[in-house]
Design goal:
By secondary structure, this protein is of the alpha/beta class. The protein has two domains: 203 residues, 3-Layer(aba) Sandwich (Rossmann fold), CATH 3.40.50; 154 residues, Glycogen Phosphorylase B (Rossmann fold), CATH 3.40.50.2000. Helices cover 40% and strands 18% of the residues.
């Protein structure tokens, strides 16, 4: 009989789902893969042939303030979060009784104790060790992200270190991991993006006046940035993905899409929020990128530093997007851009992650 693998995927944004599916496609030839998800994950996985079943659970949340994460409000909502966590545990318990998985993989989901109680081997898909290392190395970080780092990101690292049997940790560069449980792999991106990157990875950035089309690939979550007025004044076509709006002149709103590959293919430049899946695909595609971190989100700011350090683009605010694009177009130069390190980037993470999970299952069988 084929091994049974359960993926438990956070559905707050779309990136967790696209990343997990890239790995699932490699695993499905040797394992029966089932998915438990919520939110955007439900929509994303509903037509995927590589999974045996799609199962839905409740979703946890971050509290918001002025479009960003509020650590204080999230803490004040702890009662609601505890009740949701209990419901999620019950839903997971029921599914485990039905499926009896041989291994489970979580991506940004933390209701794992039914898995621990049943002794199911558990892998995490998480690069919190990279975020912790880069945060500790960085200087001049904004005060607004410190609370979220110490209360959320650092605890995320310790959670995975304590409760996972193995952690698949993607990174652009072959950096050492902080702990033996963390298995370093390359960036995990969709197959379609890898195919496009074969064409774009060695190309030079177009000059700003050569831009014909820009894709605003905003987060699929409630934290998607709200780009201010003035997009229609820019001298190129703009596709806004992830937000609803009234299309006019050169600006087209596409809302949430489960497949944005054609729009990314036609774009000469990207404007993204700072989720790691979007960052991974932007780096892979080797197109000039503006990254807008969600306010108060330490991981997204660190991801922005990665973009800048690789010479792939810039950290900007919502208000900066239009004036900076206008400025670069006026001088026809990518002002202050670091030298490109695209040649150093590893984009084989989906294959490497699948291989690591297959090896993990083999170790489980051997120990049994």
């Amino acid at each position: 009989m084929r091994p049974v693998c359960l993926f438990i995927v956070n559905g707050l944004g779309m990136g967790n789902s696209t990343r997990c599916y890239a790995v699932i496609k490699k695993l499905s030839s040797v394992m029966d893969v089932h998915v438990l998800t919520c939110g955007n994950g439900e929509k994303f996985f509903q037509d995927k042939k590589d999974i045996k079943s799609l199962n839905i659970m409740d979703a946890l949340f971050y509290a918001q303030k002025e479009g960003g994460i509020s650590v204080a409000r999230t803490f004040m909502s702890i009662g609601d979060l505890i009740r949701l966590a209990r419901n999620k545990s019950k839903q997971l318990e029921t599914l485990l009784t039905k499926l009896k998985p041989d291994i489970a993989v979580t991506d940004s989901e933390y209701s794992i104790f039914p898995l621990r109680r049943k002794g199911i081997p558990l892998a995490g898909l998480n690069n919190s060790d990279v975020i912790v290392t880069e945060y500790m190395k960085a200087s001049g970080l904004p005060r607004s992200i410190k609370g979220q780092f110490w209360l959320v990101e650092l605890n995320d690292y310790f959670f995975h270190r304590a409760f996972m049997d193995i952690v698949i940790s993607p990174a652009a560069l072959p950096t050492p991991s902080r702990h033996p449980k963390f298995k370093r792999v390359g960036l995990i991106v969709r197959d379609e993006i890898l195919e496009l990157s074969k064409i774009t990875q060695t190309q030079k950035f177009p000059a700003p006046r050569e831009l014909k089309r820009v894709a605003l690939m905003l987060s699929g979550s409630v934290f998607a940035s709200k780009i201010g007025p003035g997009l229609e004044t820019l001298p190129f076509k703009i596709d806004v993905i992830g937000r609803e709006g009234r299309s006019h002149d050169n600006v087209t709103y596409h809302g949430k899409l489960t497949n944005n590959v054609e729009l990314l293919k036609s774009a000469d430049m990207l404007v993204i929020n700072g989720g790691f899946s979007a960052v991974s695909e932007a780096i892979s595609l080797n197109k000039p990128t503006f990254l807008i971190p969600v306010p108060g989100h330490a991981e997204q700011h660190i991801n922005g530093l990665l973009i800048e350090g690789l010479g792939a683009g810039y950290i900007v605010s919502e208000a900066d997007v239009v004036p900076k694009l206008a400025r670069f177009h006026e001088i026809n130069a990518w002002e202050g851009l670091a030298p490109s390190r695209r040649a150093d980037v590893n984009t084989a993470g989906a294959v490497e992650a699948a291989e690591a999970l297959i090896a993990f299952h083999a170790q489980v069988v051997k120990r049994a």
